[in-house]
Design a protein that fits this description.
mainly alpha, Arc Repressor Mutant, subunit A, 62% helix, Rossmann fold, LuxR family maltose regulon positive regulatory protein, 882 residues, elongated
């Protein structure tokens, strides 16, 4: 069995197994569809020569495109292949059709009379009339043993989406037909990394271009340069020379080749520009639809899209580059006008990088800024490295006047992780440019410039300036009319996000949440994905503030939405992961919290939220009981950020509380106190209260919590309120004030249940938690044992009882006690009498709270003995492990 009538494959053409497999697929119809030069017929011939299927090859030529002519031609090919017996109805197809027989009824009956499966390979099926193709499809539906393999230069009835409802059709498109880099290298017998391979791939990977290149260059030239312009021009000249192209069509192709792809409206605009420039006396409009259809028929390109309103025409890269190059040489001024029209179309049709590339080519910085303002997020997300290459070499004199461009570059360099210094330079330049231009700008531009300024200052660690810019920009944005806000386009949610982030880091959480909510609302109403970032920022800000009920609801809501690939574990969704981590920490689930934070590791170095992530890392290790590991991780993080120049004094102040927790959990209360610094604040007062409670000094803890600084500034967040309430309840319980402790505990538990918190209790020193458990046991406040016992099981901070005040002689005795065997040996080691040793031992045991030598040795094992006179110590300084 074989396919009869297969044409000869040109010598030197390599096998392409991946295409052969596609033709051998199970579908009833497989069509290879692409412009001229993609090797459709060769690929199908290679399959036909190797397949085990039985059938015939049919080449459609002028004159046999109609139904009757096609069926007659098909019958003749079947007869020539010896597939028709003497009684077969198709053997007399010519006579039957001449007598008025319906061609498709005749073909259907004839194919049903054949025995076994049959495959018809139709080369250039697009030459058939649509009615003829539809007739063939109907026959395939009625004759199960029939399958069709075909080639086509353009779309046709086989591309109708409705056809898939009744017939399996596979289309091998131009991207599939194009040679892969490996196939190009194999065809040219050169290394795949050669510039020639990249050049041919950029021109569409056309098999015909690869063959011409191989024939025209020697081996050394191939490895260096690939197809020369002469090869490209000769191929294009051959295409033109072989076809009767009138001047009007040739001008249309040259003018429209400037666009990578185009719809009918853009084609008409480009054709009008070219005609009015080159033929100003000709006022006859072009029939653009007919000209594009002819371009497709000529194999110059393909239509893509499913409807007339969404479809675009794309020239083969080789054809496009060849004609555009000629036009640039012959009419450079015309090209500039055409390119500007294409850039405007690309901007309007959601192709930001293409539009930006053309704007830079034209040095049209106003257009470039408009593209950036409209597609800020998309450009950063999808075209990072391309942006750096695009603006490489742009003069500083330009960047100083173009804050949008400079800010885009700053954000791109900042997120790479290896160009922080360059990013800081661009941030400073963008901020300066924004400040110098905002006063003379329209409201829409002014608010964008304020957002740039705020973001630049914030990322540079200048939080006060970032807050001023954010407040002013937010004021302008909220005061704008609906028409002015429409002028912001796609960037409006991003503006709310940027202002909200600066407000959040300035401690203005409620204002920040309002901005994030506006971002989400605008994004939802306008179908803009940047609103999803507003939702993530809301979830993270709520969780950081301790409002877990609302944060969890926001996370659940966001999980039902479709996020772009990579957003949830990148900068855009980092606060969603932060929210998930805080929710896990409130359940004391360190492993779940760690999974959320680790998902951000690939971007950790460049995310500006690293201090919050570092704080969560510390809490994870503290819950696991590893304070030293927490300290090492924080030190490493801060060292890396110092090298990136990402640490500012406000950041250090925020991490002071984190550092204090580590030191206290490690049993170093004095270091914990030093970490808090001297500046009065609510967080410092809470930290000092926790240290005092760890030292079993409840009165001092209550004094710190009552300090006016503890309630200074903005209203306390739910998290800080829970921490202060938990420490107050623990202090009252440890002080023995059971009545007030019970009331305070009841208020605490009700508040934490409402906020879905649990972490604040785990940060209460263990001895105070034990006292709270005793208060709960004898009180009537309900059944708080589960929460308290869970917190006690995950307590981060052990209790540090004050070290006893030992005399120098008692310290000397304590030092030799572990090495001595008895009283006599102790007396000898200390050069005193045994009675003196006995007296000193009684005093030492009493101060240590020990009843015997073994208990005394246990107590001494956790102490660091000092020669410092007892009276010189500060009140509460244990000196036991710090």
């Amino acid at each position: 069995m074989a396919i009869r009538g297969v044409p000869r494959v040109p010598s030197g053409v390599r096998e392409r197994p991946r295409l052969v497999r596609r033709f051998d697929g199970p579908q009833a119809v497989v069509v290879a569809q692409g412009p001229a030069g993609y090797g459709k017929s060769v690929a199908m011939a290679q399959w036909a020569a190797a397949t085990a299927a039985d059938g015939i090859w049919v080449r459609i030529r002028d004159g046999n495109a109609g139904s009757a002519a096609f069926v007659q031609h098909l019958a003749a090919e079947l007869a020539a292949a010896g597939l028709l017996d003497d009684a077969h109805p198709l053997l007399l197809a010519t006579e039957a059709l001449s007598g008025g027989a319906d061609p498709w009824t005749l073909l259907r009956r004839g194919l049903q009379a054949l025995h076994g499966p049959l495959t018809i390979a139709v080369d250039e099926i697009d030459r058939l009339t649509p009615e003829c193709v539809n007739g063939l499809v109907d026959v395939v539906l009625d004759v199960p043993q029939l399958s069709v393999r075909a080639t086509s230069r353009r779309r046709g009835p086989l591309n109708d989406p409705a056809l898939a409802l009744k017939l399996d059709v596979a289309v091998i498109g131009a991207t599939d037909l194009a040679l892969t880099p490996d196939e190009i290298a194999d065809a040219l017998s050169i290394d795949v990394t050669s510039p020639a391979v990249a050049r041919i791939a950029a021109l569409g990977g056309l098999p015909i271009l690869t063959r011409l290149t191989s024939q025209s260059l020697d081996e050394s030239s191939l490895s260096r340069e690939g197809p020369t312009q002469g090869v490209i021009d000769s191929l294009i000249d051959a295409e033109i020379a072989s076809r009767p192209w009138d001047p009007r069509f040739a001008l249309f192709v040259r003018a429209t080749s400037v666009a990578d792809s185009l719809d009918r409206a853009l084609a008409a605009e480009l054709a009008d520009i070219a005609r009015s420039t080159l033929e100003p006396t000709d006022d006859v409009p072009d029939d653009v639809g007919a000209l594009l259809a002819r371009a497709e028929d000529e194999g110059l390109g393909l239509w893509t899209g499913t409807t007339r309103t969404t479809e675009t025409f794309t020239y083969t890269p080789l054809i496009r580059e060849g004609f555009e190059r000629r036009l640039r040489f012959e009419q450079p001024r015309l090209v500039e006008t055409l390119v500007r029209a294409v850039a405007r179309w690309e901007l309007a049709h959601g192709r930001p990088f293409a539009a930006l590339r053309r704007a830079v080519e034209l040095r049209d910085w106003e257009l470039a800024s408009r593209v950036i303002r409209t597609y800020w997020n998309e450009l950063l997300r999808n075209h990072g490295q391309q942006l750096r290459r695009l603006f490489h070499g742009t003069p500083l004199s330009v960047l100083r006047r173009q804050p949008l461009i400079t800010m885009l570059l700053a954000l791109e360099y900042n997120r790479t992780g290896h160009h922080r210094l360059r990013a800081l330079e661009y941030f400073a330049l963008a901020g300066h440019a924004a400040r110098t231009q905002r006063d003379r700008s329209a409201p829409a531009d002014r608010v964008v410039l304020r957002a740039i300024e705020s973001a630049a200052l914030r990322v540079s660690g200048r939080f006060d300036g970032a807050l001023v810019a954010a407040l002013d920009g937010r004021r302008i944005l909220l005061a704008m009319s609906p028409d002015d806000r429409d002028g912001l386009g796609r960037v409006e949610p991003t503006l709310h996000n940027q202002f909200g982030t600066s407000l959040f880091y300035a401690g203005r959480t409620e204002d920040a949440l309002d901005s994030f909510a506006r971002s989400t609302s605008v994004g939802a109403s306008k179908g803009l994905k940047a609103g999803l970032q507003g939702m993530a920022l809301s979830a993270g800000a709520l969780a950081a503030a301790g409002d877990l009920r609302e944060s969890i609801a926001m996370i659940e809501q966001s999980q039902a939405l479709e996020w772009p690939e990579g957003w949830l574990t990148g900068y855009m969704g980092s606060f969603n992961q932060l929210a998930g981590a805080f929710a896990a920490l409130e359940r004391w689930d360190a492993d779940a919290a760690d999974r959320h934070i680790r998902s951000l590791d690939p971007h950790r170095e460049t995310i500006e939220h690293w201090p919050l992530l570092a704080h969560v890392d510390v809490l994870v290790e503290l819950l696991r009981g590893h304070p030293e590991r927490a300290r090492l991780a924080l030190d490493a993080e801060m060292l890396m950020q110092r090298r990136r120049r990402s640490i500012a004094p406000p950041t250090l102040a925020r991490l002071a509380h984190t550092r204090s927790l580590i030191e206290l959990a490690a049993g170093r209360p004095a270091a914990a106190e030093r970490a808090l610094g001297k500046a009065a604040s609510a967080r410092r007062s809470t930290g000092l209260a926790r240290i005092a409670l760890a030292r079993a000094q409840p009165d001092d803890a209550l004094r710190h919590l009552a300090n006016p600084a503890a309630s200074a500034g903005d209203p306390a967040s739910s998290r800080s309120r829970a921490e202060a309430m938990a420490l107050r309840a623990g202090a009252l319980a440890l002080a023995g004030d059971a009545g007030r402790a019970a009331v305070s505990l009841g208020e605490l538990l009700e508040f934490m249940a409402n906020r879905q918190q649990g972490l604040a209790l785990a940060l209460v020193p263990a001895q105070a938690l034990d006292a709270l458990l005793e208060v709960a046991r004898v009180s009537t406040i309900g059944d708080p044992h589960e929460l308290l016992e869970g917190a006690r099981a995950h307590a981060v901070i052990g209790s540090l009882a004050p070290a006893p005040s030992l005399t120098p002689r008692e310290i000397a005795l304590a030092r030799v006690l572990p090495r001595a065997g008895g009283t006599a040996e102790l007396a000898e080691m200390l050069s005193v009498s045994p009675n003196t040793v006995k007296s000193q031992l009684r005093s030492l045991y009493r101060k240590l709270g020990a009843g015997n030598r073994a208990e005394a040795l246990i107590a001494l094992s956790v102490m660091v003995l000092s020669e410092e006179p007892a009276g010189s110590r500060r009140r509460g300084d244990t000196r036991s492990s710090d």
